[in-house]
């Protein structure tokens, strides 16, 4: 505030300089983030419910994870525009865990997963997840997608799905035949198929129409049709948000001594972390803002999963569908994802009865569509043309997940990836120079490992037995113990054949 003196010597009224609005200074992009948060909320709502129902847990638990993903993980540093919540990629693993260990133990598993993620983030291991073979990750997603599609097709038809992935796929023809003879099943099937059709066609509609997210439109239309026509289809069971919270008990913590539970925790940790950090890399390509800090993002995911575990909710990961919607809706800061968690909380607290009208076949249809998008068809075609070894890893990983289980399938894929890398890294070349007289000269170069040992020995044993040999190892970058021992044994055998001892020029 300043005072001004007039030419007549009188003073005018004080002039106030209006300060800038504090909230605008602190949240310069509030308008864009507010609008984006509404879009993300509308996308997240049906997906949270669908993932929960498909996982065999109360629908409210999916909302709780979405709320924690927005409000807890959303405020933390890492990736500014990435949105977290329950993911279709963990549905199969969660369903198996609940079926095998029970819902009370799920909270302990998720809690332990969160703690492990916090530890790995503190040890700065987040960046190492980028070293996981892309073929293994895509194979994992493809396997999850296949099992998810097969399992949710039973829900679309209003029947119960078998337990294992192979049984789900093998039983589909019979389930469809049974559905054809039931009016109730056909009605459920038609509603689910209609939901999928809306999702497929939604992207082709005018831009003005597509301002409403496809999943929300599909579920909204299915709910409207089922309610107005009074269709005999199953709907979401509502218990209430607080009634669905399950704090882990002492007995549940006792299950940590089980090998099966520990294996599930490791699977949750690896898959949730890899999916989140790969999603972060994808989101970074969608915008020009701050890049992801992987170790901090891993800790943010760990904090969110720790809270979810304490509440007995579903595990969370970063979700590419919600994250892409956030970026495309014009979000600028993490305020958009925090606000989307607030909207989820308000909806669950103020309008829980609305959930009871949502048909389960519609939610199953959304997950069938989501599962199909997890299968990297274009990548498979590209790998077939350019890197068939990588395609083999992708296919084997996917088939192993379907045929055995998630954890074993991922381990098989990782093992294949390591073996392939070791094989490609162990390039070795043997050059033989035989001038017709004097010793035969053999030059080994590259990396001599046990993986290439048969090739090396076959070439050396083919050398003339009645001629002296000079073996030059100076071109080798690496010579492992197995190869060194085998070369020494070959030299002794060759020298014992009555020729001069093999002369070896050692490597570096």
TrEMBL record:
It is a multi-pass membrane protein. The keyword rRNA processing does not apply. Keywords: Membrane, Transmembrane, Transmembrane helix. This is SulP family inorganic anion transporter. Its main location: membrane. It is found in: Membrane. Residues 30-397 form the SLC26A/SulP transporter domain. It holds the Pfam family Sulfate_transp. The lineage of its organism: Bacteria, Bacillati, Actinomycetota, Actinomycetes, Kitasatosporales. It comes from the Bacteria. It comes from Streptomyces yaanensis. The chain crosses the membrane at residues 34-54, 101-119, 131-154, 185-202, 214-236, 256-278, 298-321, 341-370, 391-416.
